[in-house]
Model the fold of this input.
Amino acid sequence: MSERALPSRDERVAALREARVVLVSACLLGEACRYDGRCQRSERVLAALEDKDVVPVCPEVGSGLPVPRPPVDLRGGTGVDVWAGRATAVERAAGIDRTEPFQRGARLALDAARRFGATVALLKEKSPSCGSQRVYESGQLRAGEGITTALLRAEGITVLGDEDL
Ligand code: SF4
Done:
């Protein structure tokens, strides 16, 4: 997965405005699929999707991980580095490597985008899967993207975060 120039916030928001079908983090729609068993329902997100066809995805639950589940941090880099084999997704407390299910969930999200013709994804910021501008690496919030976002972008899908709205 090579480095590439990302669209600006204005360009990302414009892409969302023009999109007909949008892949969306299910937690932003009100699905209680977060690691802590809660949702992250966002009225701003719902308003932005009013005239769109929505494809909800939760890459982590899609991969078979339970709700609730232990929080996971990226280690050694961000989502791009995970796909390059330089970084991992690891349970914060127990240190268990969850890279494989996180990558599987990302592929399922990409499959859903392709199947339904989504060219834009609106995902939850700061998540190790769905983050698009900032993610936690080894407990520190830093610039970068999650594992699902990195894959979607590599496949030409424009990804923006709820904090872009
Ligand atoms: S941020 Fe992504 S992986 Fe996390 S709960 Fe929401 S949809 Fe699922």
Observations:
- Residues 9-164 form one domain.
- The pocket of iron/sulfur cluster is lined by residues 25-27, 33-34, 58-60, 124, 127, 129-130 (CB under 6 Å).
